[in-house]
Amino acid sequence: MRAVGLVVEYNPLHNGHLYHLQAARQLSGAEVVVAVMSGNFLQRGEPAILDKWTRAQAALAHGVDLIVELPFANAVAPADRFASGALNLLATLQCDSLVFGTENTTIDYQSVGRQLAILPDLHEYFRDYQQTYATQLNHFYQETLHLNIDAPNQLLGLSYATANARLKRPLRLLPLARKNAQYQDQELNGSTIASATAIRRLALGQTTAEQSLATVVPADILQALQQQKLLTWADFFPYLRYRILSTPLAELGQIYQMTEGLEHRFHSVIKQVNDFPSLLRALKTKRYTYTRLQRLCLYVLLNIREPAIRQVEQQPYVHLLGFSQRGQAYLHQIKEQLDLPLIARVSQKIGHEQGLLGLEVRVDDIYAQLNGHEQNFNRPPLRVK
């Protein structure tokens, strides 16, 4: 059996994702769909509205055959590191193609990826402190490749292409045009496909839109959105505020990605704000995007230090969240070829602070406190028929 890979967050899974799943099988001709999914915290530095097990269950119910977790170190990171972590897992799981959504399907991602892969680390290349990294990156793409990157999924697509070109055995890249809704559309537009942002706003009661959630998400996700506690930064802000106030300045400066004296800015503004959006506005400068600051807030909340991130990078693994019967058969087919540890159950040993999944367990603990459900221990992989 051949497998096609997907990189997903499913925050939450909606009709646009069902289109992606169906198209992935058609474009690739693969018999098996493998998904790498972020856990309880996401790439833009925010908590998932539903926990990883609820989202994995929905993925399996709607066509994914094998789903694994993208570790926090890659899941909550800039596009290049997010893409690198995900592509390495898909390659480990022997996928031969990747289907990803983008606003521009005319780019030859395979070729562009090879060009970008030979360039030095762009994080070191950009030193204009009056512009955000994203702005400088867009200028670089315009000057070097004559590409105008004006949408999030275009940047992510190029990050996939670059990471893919660096693999020993690159995957076949199959871009898929986004359908109807754009990534950050704030409101539903009457279509049966809406952005995850608009769906979250409606589920959380942050919009007056009259369109029903039932028109844009499958029934099982609708039920979860109506019955489960939906988590946002508003739930975590009191803990973040306490963390900033109670952490000595020198220790705050040791938080992962806390650069250029930002710890002083955190300390100076935290007493002046009462909610998370106000904190982000107070922290904002020309140098940093809201997404960069939001990720940094998450690192502060969870007390993330660089050694913990480096440990995951140096000791990668595959954490299995669930599979279908076809996925189980595929896993049996490739098991002897796996070159990373396959984790089906999180034991006390590997979930210990210094264990293989130590970071994952630690960051999930605070999510579980608010969500009310254990996220790692005694959680076997999900199975669907």
UniProtKB/TrEMBL annotation:
Cellular component terms per the entry's GO annotation: cytoplasm
Single Gene Ontology BP annotation: tRNA modification
Enzyme class: ligase
Swiss-Prot/TrEMBL keywords: ATP-binding, Cytoplasm, Ligase, Nucleotide-binding, RNA-binding, tRNA processing, tRNA-binding
A GO term for molecular function: ATP binding
Annotated binding of ATP, by residue: 7-20, 101, 153, 178
Reactions performed catalytically: cytidine(34) in elongator tRNA(Met) + acetate + ATP = N(4)-acetylcytidine(34) in elongator tRNA(Met) + AMP + diphosphate
EC number: 6.3.4.-
Keyword field contains DNA-binding: no
Localization: Cytoplasm
Superkingdom of origin: Bacteria
Family under the similarity heading: Belongs to the TmcAL family.
NCBIfam families the UniProt entry points to: PRK13670.1 (NF010191)
HAMAP family registered for this protein in UniProt: TmcAL
Described purpose of this protein according to its UniProt entry: Catalyzes the formation of N(4)-acetylcytidine (ac(4)C) at the wobble position of elongator tRNA(Met), using acetate and ATP as substrates. First activates an acetate ion to form acetyladenylate (Ac-AMP) and then transfers the acetyl group to tRNA to form ac(4)C34.
Protein name (record): tRNA(Met) cytidine acetate ligase
Species per Swiss-Prot/TrEMBL record: Loigolactobacillus coryniformis subsp. coryniformis KCTC 3167 = DSM 20001
